[in-house]
Amino acid sequence: MQVTNPEQLFELKENEFIGELPTLTNSQINFNGINNILVCEEGVNLWNSRIDFNLNNSILYLSSDTHNYSVNISLHNNNICFIGKNNFFNGMTVFVLSESKNIFLGDDCFISYNVVFRTSDGHPIYNAESKRRENFAKSIYVGDHVWLGQNAFIFKGSKIGSGAVIGAGSVVSNKTINSNTTYAGAPLKLIKDNSFWIPHSVHGWNKEDISKMSVYNSELFVYDVDDSTLDFDGIENDLNSLSELDDVVSYIWSTILVGGKNRFTIK
C-alpha cells in the first residue's frame, strides 16, 4: 500500500500505525510487507521523503521535530529504526536497514547534506579457503547532539556518543566514537578530544560576534557517564530478547525516552 495522504494510515490492514498523523509534503510511505509498525509522535513533518517497509516485522519510530524530516528510509525484515526529537536534516539523509539490524539516532543532532546510514554491505563476502562469511551486518547507534558533516557515511557497527562531531566526507565503520570528540577522514582519525560544539550558525557572524563567541562558558554540551547512562550493547541485547513488536515499542517508551542528558554517553 502506498500512502501519500496521512489519512490512509488509518486504512492499514496487515500493518499498524500508532500515534499522531504526520504531515506528508511530496512524500510517500510504502507498506510492501506485513506486520510492520509506524510510530509517529506529534509534529512529524515529512518533506520530499520516502519510507519503504520492503518486507516484514519492522518498526519505524519518528519522534516530534521542530524541523522537517528529509529522509529516505528503507527497512527490510526485523529492523528497528528509532529517530529522536528535534534533529536537523540539512538535505536528504539515507537510512538502509537490513539483516535484522537496527539504527538508533538520538535527539538534537545536526545532519548535513548526503549523509548515509547502512547496517549491511548489501552483499555477502566469504573467505576463499574456509568459505565462511566475513561481513555480517551490525546495528548503528548515534547519541544526542551529534554533528554529522556533509557526505559522511555511517556504516555497520558504528557507535557514536553524545556530543561527538564527525567531519565532512568521513567514513565511520565498526568504530566506537567517544562523547565530546571530533573525528574526520577516510580512514577515520581522532582530530580533537575533550571538545564540544554548539548549534549556532557562524555564516553571518561579524567581527563582534566572532570575538564575543570566542569563549562559550557552559557545560550544556559536555557529557559524562552517570547512573542514567545506557549501554548500546545492552540496548541491542534487550531488543534481541523481545519477540513481539508491541513490546519493542513499550521498551522504547519506558527505557529510551525516559533517559536523562547523559543517556547515550560513551567514555
Low-pLDDT residue intervals, each spanning 5 or more residues:
none
How much strand? Answer: 25-35%
Order of helices and strands: EEEEEEEEEEEEEEEEEEEEEEEEHHH
Oligomer: single chain
Rg on CA atoms, Å: 19 Å
Instruction: Calculate the terminal CA-CA distance, rounded to whole Å.
Output: 44 Å
Q: Please give the share of residues in helix.
A: 10-25%
Main sheet strand line-up: 1-4-7-9-12-15-18-21
Identify the overall geometry. globular
Largest sheet, in brief, is: 8 strands, mixed
Number of domains: 1
The CATH architecture: 3 Solenoid
CATH topology label: UDP N-Acetylglucosamine Acyltransferase, domain 1
Structural class: mainly beta
Per CATH, the class reads Mainly Beta
Number of strands: 24
> What is the averaged pLDDT score?
97
Number of helices: 3
CATH homologous superfamily name?
Hexapeptide repeat proteins
Textual characterization of the structure:
It is a single chain. The protein has helices spanning 207-212, 232-241, 245-256; strands at residues 2-3, 16-19, 23-25, 28-31, 37-40, 45-47, 50-53, 59-62, 71-75, 80-83, 88-89, 93-96, 103-105, 110-111, 115-118, 140-142, 147-148, 153-154, 159-160, 165-166, 171-172, 176-177, 182-184, 189-192. By secondary structure, it is mainly beta. The protein has one domain: Hexapeptide repeat proteins (UDP N-Acetylglucosamine Acyltransferase, domain 1, 3 Solenoid). Strands 1-4-7-9-12-15-18-21 form an eight-stranded mixed β-sheet, with no helix packed on it. It has an eight-stranded parallel β-sheet with strand order 2-5-8-10-13-16-19-22, covered by helices on one side. The radius of gyration is 19 Å and the shape is globular. The N and C termini lie far apart (44 Å). The model has no long low-confidence stretch (mean pLDDT 97).
